[in-house]
Every structure is written in C-alpha cells, then in structure tokens.
C-alpha cells in the first residue's frame, strides 16, 4: 500500500518532488493516464459506433448467419483495459478484477486504484440493455409446415460475476437456447396459430430463456419474432384461401342483401294489400250503411204517408178517399206505361179498359185489408185485457198494499 500511496502523491503533486526518481515516476504516471484516456475513447467508439451490418467489417461477437450484432458484453474483450494503477470505470459498466489469477472484486463506475502486476482486469461487462439478433432458422409446425424464422432478443447483464464465470460463451449459449426454444414452441402450434399467436409465442420463449439464463447472470427482457417465411406453395395456398374466403363473404353478403330486399318487397306488398282490403271494406261498409239509412228513411216516410192516409180515411174525410183513388189510378197508369215499353207478353185483367171498375176493386181490396188489420188489433187488445184479468185474479187489496 505504500507504493500505491506514493504513486498517488506523485500523480497529484508533481511539483513537490524534484529528484530524478520522482521525475521518472511522474512521467510513467502521465503516460499511463494518457493510455487510459485512449483506451476509454476506443471503448466508447466500440460501444456506441458499432456498424449495423456485418459486411462493414468483422466485428468480434457478430453472427455469421446473415445478421449483425453489437459488440458482445459476454465474451472476454480482445483488448482489455491495462492496469495503469489509476483507472476510471465508465457508467453502466462493470469490470471484473482478478488478483494473481483469482477473482478479487468487481469495480463499479468511478475511480479505481489497482496494484500493478498483481491486479488484472479480466472481464468488462456492459450493464446496458442490448439487442441481439437471432439468426434465421428452420422450424416445423404441428401441421408439418417448414418455416424460416428470425428474431431479436433483448438482454441485460444483472450479475457481472455470473456472466463472467457462469458460462464460457454466454452469447453463443443464449443464441442457441433462443433457437432451440423457438423450434420447440413452433412445433407445438399449427401454422395458423403461429401467425395469430405471435405475442404469446414471444412470451413463452422469453420465459424459457430466463429459466436457463438465470445461472448466467443475464436476464431476457423480451423476445420478438421479426420475420416468418413460409414455403412458396404454402404462401400461394394461403393467398388462394384468403381470396376464396373473401369471395365467400362477398357472395354471402350479396345473398343476404337479395334476401332482405325480397323480404322488404313482400312485406311492402302485404301491407299494400292489407291497406287496400281495409279501404275496400270501409267503402263497402259505408255504402251499405248509406243504403240502409236510405231504405230506413224511405220506409219511415212511406209508413208515415200510409199512416196519414189511413187516419184520414178512418176519420171519413172524402178528400182523402179521392186522393187515394187518384194515387192508385196514377200508379196503375204508370205501370201500364212501363209494360207498353217492354216487348214481352204480360197477363192483365180482363177489365183493363174499365178504369173505374179497377179502382173500385183496388179500393175494395184495400178496405178488406184495413178491416182485417182492425180486427187483428182488436183481438190483440182483447187478449191483453184477459191476461191482465188472470194476473189480478185472487189478489186482495191487502196484498197490493203489503207489496207497496
């Protein structure tokens, strides 16, 4: 520790020491500090300015399966930071220090002081979230369809010690685990379920990776299936299926429209016929009601006229008798006038030329009819009086007053 303290004093107070030994130590520290800054700049360029395509250069940790990967935080870096006694650990970075070949400690972001020749920076782990491309691979679904799938895996180092010593090549292990898990999950689903349940498939793959990667100090935040490529015949069959389904839906919609149109037309005709029949019924009812009222009024007028004539005759008015005779004669003449217009044979009385005799005969008939009606009325009145007598027979005065 005395050597470290002396080095620190020489680094922060170079002007105090003027001996040649002090000058040499100060030059050594300045050179180490300059090398530290250059190493930090190089590391930042590797972490932040990594090409996205593998064709731009051979980057350690990239996949050779056609995808491009950022600098890995799993494997040992090809150019680890040198032990310059004083080091500055960047933010979101963990350095694993070994002392005499054995794990000693984990350096956190900030100032770090190391012992030369004894301490060695063995691993550098980035604690940031990193996107790792999973190369394209073949998988067979439950309905025996071969698919080509690739994806993106988002991971982060939680324990730098486990990520350094828990697995030899964590990147390769996680990549292989993601591929095998994907094939296993795809094999349990049909093609339609793979296309529809991509979100559930991503969740299942993430859970399976986390169960295995827990011992490696790495967590899988999420997994996203990026592209799914099916064989060309399968794609063509899917297109035909979609086209047929669309045509089926269009025909169903057309038939439903025609059916609804026919129903609407029939319903309209039904309502039209119902309304027309109701209108005809109302018209007939109105006509019948009018005819009935007309007949009733005509009958009442005829009855009133006959009653007036009968009363006049009963009172012995000669003028009424003459008026009745004149009315009968007029109707008789009108009837014969109508008969004269017809070309048919008609049977008439023999004394058709004796007008006075015909009228006298008609009046005699009328008188007989009137006499018969009078007798009938008298008979009805007599029967009514006899019925009343029978009802009152045997009833005393006390009974009448008792009822009252």
Automatic annotation (TrEMBL):
User: Mitochondrion: is it a keyword of this entry?
Assistant: yes
- Gene3D superfamilies referenced in this protein's UniProt entry, alphabetically: Band 7 domain (3.30.479.30)
What positions does the domain Band occupy?
84-242
Key word Nucleotide-binding present: no
Q: Where is this region: Disordered?
A: 48-73, 380-404
Q: Which family does it belong to?
A: Belongs to the band 7/mec-2 family.
Q: What is this protein called?
A: Stomatin-like protein
> Superkingdom of the source?
Eukaryota
The species this protein belongs to is Podospora fimiseda
Q: Which UniProt keywords apply?
A: Mitochondrion
User: What Pfam families does the annotation carry?
Assistant: Band_7, Band_7_C
GO terms for cellular component = mitochondrion; plasma membrane; side of membrane
Q: Name one GO biological process term.
A: mitochondrion organization
UniProt xrefs under InterPro entries: Band7/mec-2_domain, Band_7, Band_7/SPFH_dom_sf, STML2-like_C, Stomatin_HflK_fam
Q: Which CDD domains match?
A: SPFH_paraslipin
């Amino acid at each position: 520790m005395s050597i470290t303290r002396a080095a620190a004093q020489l680094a922060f107070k170079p002007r105090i020491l003027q001996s040649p030994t002090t000058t040499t130590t100060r030059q050594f520290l300045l050179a180490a500090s300059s090398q530290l800054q250059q190493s930090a700049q190089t590391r930042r360029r590797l972490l932040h300015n990594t090409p996205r395509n593998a064709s731009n250069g051979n980057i350690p940790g990239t996949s050779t399966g056609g995808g491009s990967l950022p600098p890995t935080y799993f494997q040992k870096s090809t150019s680890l930071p040198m032990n310059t006694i004083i080091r500055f650990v960047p933010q979101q970075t963990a350095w694993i220090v070994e002392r005499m070949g054995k794990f000693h400690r984990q350096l956190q972001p900030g100032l770090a002081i190391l012992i030369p020749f004894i301490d060695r920076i063995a691993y550098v782990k980035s604690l940031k979230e990193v996107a790792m491309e999973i190369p394209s691979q073949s998988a067979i679904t439950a309905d025996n369809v071969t698919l080509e799938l690739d994806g993106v895996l988002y991971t982060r180092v939680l324990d730098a010690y486990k990520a350094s010593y828990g697995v030899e090549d964590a990147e390769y292990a996680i990549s292989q685990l993601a591929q095998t898990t994907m094939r296993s999950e795809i094999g349990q689903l049909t093609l339609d379920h793979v296309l529809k349940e991509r979100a559930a498939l991503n969740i299942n793959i993430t859970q399976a990776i986390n169960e295995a990667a827990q011992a490696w100090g790495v967590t899988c935040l999420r997994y996203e299936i990026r592209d799914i490529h099916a064989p060309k015949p399968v794609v063509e069959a899917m297109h035909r299926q979609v086209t047929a389904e669309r045509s089926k839906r269009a025909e169903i919609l057309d038939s439903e429209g025609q059916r609804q149109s026919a129903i609407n037309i029939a319903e309209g005709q039904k309502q039209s016929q119902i309304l027309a029949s109701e209108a005809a019924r109302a018209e007939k009812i109105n006509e019948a009601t009018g005819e009935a009222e007309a007949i009733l009024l005509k009958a009442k007028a005829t009855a009133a006229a006959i009653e007036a004539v009968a009363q006049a005759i009963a009172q012995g008015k000669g003028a009424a008798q003459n008026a009745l005779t004149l009315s009968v004669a007029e109707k008789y003449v009108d009837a014969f006038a109508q008969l004269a217009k017809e070309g048919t044979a008609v049977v008439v009385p023999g004394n058709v030329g004796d007008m006075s005799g015909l009228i006298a005969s008609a009046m005699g008939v009328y008188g007989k009819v009137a006499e018969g009606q009078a007798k009938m009325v008298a008979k009805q009145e007599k029967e009514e009086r006899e019925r009343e007598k029978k009802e009152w027979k045997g009833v005393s005065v006390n009974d009448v007053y008792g009822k009252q």
